[in-house]
């Protein structure tokens, strides 16, 4: 496995991130201790150093096990965890983005992880109640304390992220270096605002759901089989999703690869820093999925996947594609301008 610089930072992370929401069985969908350790070992032995968890994953079990697994060589690993989601129900200060919950949550995570610092702390979700100023100053103080090295933001509108980083840079505070979002062949809407913003601000993108909840492996193509906990009405089993899954399966056969490898690599082969988060319940799953780093999808197949999954980017993106609009802007000179950059 190779390593990528994490956005505008100098941090080196493996080109695949191990998601550990499946470490623990409290949510009835994860793995036990032994299977989780096997998944972890396969990832590490393949060269992976980037581990993603969160304060709420499996009621804290994920953090506890991850902390134990990395303890023998803590400084080798790039450990990411998150705050925002509740740790105690019915207590309004045990959730959210505000300073009190941030500090309390981070201290609790450090105890569960049995570590003195967090390499990358994600704000998990925007709560729409805490000011951007409070969030960014509080996160800056945590970095200054040495308990957190870098910060990222997850599941938040693009305008909030861009405003937050602009404010941080204006005030001389540390800014976000990463963006975590849902992104896959069946969820391309981040291409409207979130991904262009991340590219412009040099934020590393760590997409979750890159397999579309398993839909892109082709497991829902058999209409006679109801698999897992996904309703037949889910977007993962929509006509649109099934059409994409069929194309993924077809291309995988031509390339002698698995559909999962193709789906993961499609996200990796976007024109910006994208480090997909891949989780697994079983050893064989992670073995199969991390083989994606061994090959590149040829351009002709990328084009097919782009076409079958394309979305309408909406206004103003489609508006600016209109040749008449370009002519109004440039007065017919657009083809005479040699551009070395594009904003």
What do you see in this structure?
- The chain has 343 residues and is α/β, with parallel strands linked by helices.
- It has a single domain (3-336), classed as Alpha-Beta Barrel (TIM Barrel).
- Helix content is 38%, strand content 11%.
- The protein is built from 12 helices and 10 strands.
- It has helices at 33-45, 61-70, 99-113, 132-145, 158-171, 194-201, 239-255, 259-268, 283-289, 299-308, 317-321, 323-330, and strands at residues 3-5, 12-14, 17-19, 50-52, 78-83, 118-123, 148-154, 178-180, 204-205, 277-278.
- The strands form 2 sheets. Strands 9-8-7-6-5-4-3-10 form an 8-stranded parallel beta sheet, with helices on one face.
- Helix 4 (132-145) packs across helix 5, helix 7 (239-255) packs across helix 8 (259-268) and helix 7 (239-255) runs antiparallel to helix 10 (299-308).
- The chain starts with a strand and ends in a 13-residue tail after the last helix.
- The model has no long low-confidence stretch (mean pLDDT 95).
The number of strands is 10
CATH architecture: Alpha-Beta Barrel
User: Which regions are unreliable across 5 or more consecutive residues at pLDDT < 50?
Assistant: none
Question: What is the CATH topology assignment?
Answer: TIM Barrel
- The top-level CATH class is Alpha Beta
> Portion of residues in helices?
25-40%
